[in-house]
Amino acid sequence: MTIGFLFGILLGTATPRAAAQSGSVQFKFGAYSVKESAPVATITVVRLGGSAGTVSVDFRTHDFDGTATPDFDYRPTNGTLTFGPGVTALTFTVPILQDAVDELNETVTLELFNLV
Q1: What is the 3-state secondary structure (H, E, C) of the chain?
Q2: What are phi and psi of 82, to 5 degrees?
Q3: Residue 89's beta-bridge partner residues?
Q4: What letters, b where the CB count within 10 A reaches 16 and e where it falls short, cover 42-53?
Q5: How far apart are CA 10 and CA 50, in angstroms?
Q6: Distance (Å, rounded) from C-alpha 106 to C-alpha 39?
Q7: Nearest by Cα to 66 from 74, 54, 56
Q8: Closest alpha carbon to 57 in 11, 102, 98
Q9: What pTM was estimated for this model as a whole?
Q10: What is the distance between the alpha carbons of residues 98 and 110, in angstroms, rounded to a whole number?
Q11: Which residue, 2, 5, 10, 110, is most buried by CB atoms nearer than 10 A?
């Protein structure tokens, strides 16, 4: 049986403290899904409403808000995405761990924060 992971979005949009022409960032989709047989889930973050200057945003998995178990079903991840001038999309990955246990769909919550 293949397990499906559903990635929910905790914080979808943030506006930087910088000038408005820098835009805002959000997840490209409101939810992502991937089969457990996939090695990673690729998550896209987009910059909307302007792309002047450089902005960065932190991301992380919320390891106790979903039904998937960290370090058993997936590897917890966090980091920073930096959008340079003119850059409107970046990605990060969440490693998926395969196990021998048949399970129903599981969820992992993702968050964007500290947009500067």
Answers
A1: CCCEEEEEEEECEECCCCCHHHCEEEECCCEEEEECCCCEEEEEEEEECCCCCCEEEEEEEECCCCCCCECCCECCCEEEEEECCCCCEEEEEEEECCCCCCCCCEEEEEEEECCC
A2: -120, 115
A3: 46
A4: ebebebeebbee
A5: 23
A6: 16
A7: 74
A8: 11
A9: 0.83
A10: 20
A11: 110
CA 85/CA 14 separation, integer angstroms: 18
Residue 20's beta-bridge partner residues?
A: none
- Structure-token pair, residue 26: 């959000």
Cβ 78 vs Cβ 58: under 8 Å: yes
**Which amino acid belongs to residue 41?**
A
Q: How many whole angstroms separate alpha carbon 42 and alpha carbon 23?
A: 23
pLDDT per position in the chain (116 positions), as tens? 333 455 555 544 444 444 456 788 889 988 888 888 889 999 999 998 888 899 999 999 987 777 888 998 899 999 999 999 999 999 999 999 887 776 778 888 888 888 88
Cα–Cα dist 87/56, whole Å: 11
